[in-house]
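Q: I have two molecules that I believe assemble together. Could you output structure tokens for the complex as a whole instead of separate predictions?
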Amino acid sequence: MNTIAVYNLKGGVGKTSAAINLAYLSARDGHRTLLWDLDPQGAATFYCRIKPKVKGGAQKIVQHKRNLDPAIRGTDFDNLDLLPADFSYRTFDSTLDATKKPVRHLASLLKPLKKEYDHLIFDCPDGLATLSESVFFAADLLLIPVIPTTLSLLTFDQVKKHLKKKTKRPPLTLPFFSMVDRRKRLHKEICAEYANGKDGFLKTTVPFASAVERMGVERAPLPSYDRRSTATRAYQALWEEVKEKM
Amino acid sequence: MMRGTAQFAVPPETNVDDVLAVVRRHFTFRAARSTPCLRRYFDSFDWLLYNTQTTIYQETLGKQKHLHWQPLDDGPPTHSLATAETPRFATDLPPGRFCDDLTPVLGYRALLPLADVQYRRRVFRVLNKDKKTIARLIVEENAVVTNSTSDHKASLGAMLRVMPIKGYENKALDLGRLLRKEVGLPDHDTPLLLDALDALGHTPGGATGKKDPVLDPALRADEAVRLLLRSLLETIEINEPGVRADIDTEFLHDFRVAVRRTRSVLGQLKSILPPDVLAHYQPEFKWLGGVTGPTRDLDVYLLKFETYQSWVPPRVREDLEPLRDFLKVQQRREQARLVEALDTPRYRALLEGWRAFLDGPAPEPPPSPEAARPVLEVASARIWRTYKKTLKEGRAIINNPDAPAEALHQLRIRCKKLRYLLELFRSLYPPKALKRLIKALKKLQDNLGDFNDFEVQQDTLQQFAAQMKHEGQTEVDTFLAMGRLEAYMAQRQDETREAFAERFLRFADPKNQEQFRALFK
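A: Yes, here they are, computed for all two components at once.
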């Protein structure tokens, strides 16, 4: 099982859109895919039209009292399942801190899923505490959407430094530009600067597009109802690039 | 299978749309267009998938083609791949879990098309108030089955399938109950593949020539031997079309094993068959073994080619590729020769004459007193004698560290004879004990086989090199890589020789000896 985490310290950078669209594309390729919505806001869960509810919440999950399987829901798409968000995830950090090995704990919860799924995709909340550390420990790939602005790049630098210094077994980090507005000069300039793969940035950039925002109305992954838009094509290209790195 | 899965046959007098109208009163669902769908089912010649209760099919829906591997009972696929290619061998699949899991199941076997099912499919998504799909109702209509290899056609009745969605199984159960109780549809548990094969008049898991007949211990020895020989002849006949078409290498392998076993029976149970029959058929089967040999040798070379490549340093692996091309050309040449041999009157006469002899009455009086004895006695005596000879020859090698390769070759042949006898007559003995002995023998045979293979392959490498040089065009790098391969084989041969003593002593340990004595003496 390949574990991919979509993460950024900063919020509102297109994490959920990337997570759900890549999960959908993975499933469409025929891979058994599980998307775990770790964000208590439950946007990915909402897109899947699934109730943001896990019986017993984070507490039960962490205590090993609850095998993850009964909480998993099938989506409308073949091969794509969701582990829904739960409001209790807002205290996931402290729940994990109460365990013996907080950082390794999440990875051990995933073991039974290894046979069931080919790809596990985390949609992570922002922030940088125990839950994020656990995700870094469990993940093989860390996808980081970055808006091409100076501040966003600064945040990305912080994450990078943290991974280098504090994380024991850092996953392969794959940053990519997200919410790129081609009308903005700064966006264009920054993207051009990183176009040759500087800092490990992927070639694909995901545009800022109304099609992506419409996912909230359609409540479905973008490529499932829109086959042609530039955003759809960008996610497809992104998925191809991610597959190559696996 | 997932809870909530159900399958219903729609009787011919029932209108599917009437059924849907009833469902609509209780569930909200979104209709989908009716799409043409084609499923092509595959299995190996010897039903390796069916025997593991699974099936592989390629599904064409509009422009999309998927390859699925799923449980036979139509449960959700465990492996899927979006691909327009139909793999012939497991190793043709792109690297990944599908390939990794299928390779050990199929081995060297090719996937052959079994049946094509063409139908129209409508998928109804049952929705909750959030318009989330909570179950699927699939209607399959106008199904026509065709045999992938002939023009045989048959039609199937309409089917309704209830497919649950993980976490919402109760809704699927409700839907199933409705169709069963209120609409009164009968459950239909047969998987689509089995319906299709049934409509074509095929029996899955059919004749593959791999089963030895079960013998009655009291049966007259010559009768029993004729039964065995007839079964071996069937194996030869069943595999012949696959050998000719070169579908996969196992056809020829099974064909040759049956020929060798036949020869082994003729050679080792001489007194049981009439002398004139022996005098005629022994050389004929020897000829058949001979004409099928070169193709098999090249098949083995090609099957093991990646292993050979792994025996040389990575940077020279590429240099061996011209050898692979050379082997492929040779294999095609030898395969053509083999088919020519199978087209000769000599081959036809051999098979027809042999069949006529085996189908005819057992000669009266029996050709020898031994032929009239119960088969159990004769088989045991024969196995015991061969076993004793095996031990004797093996010990002679152990006691003489300078024993020539020829001695190991002799022992290898002796072990083969013993193995064939044990396997041919296995139905006469307790399965568990026999399995243990065969396993012990097999370990020894592996060692001897490797030793012999390394010996022979060094020679053939030399021959290939000479031939390639004669044909020109081969780069010196290739010859150098072949030289490395040969050196490695020589080293491995020495290692195999060193391992012999330990393998043999394990085979000849007192426990096994006791077991042989208990069963056969």
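A: One point stands out. The first strand of chain B starts at residue 6 and ends at 9.
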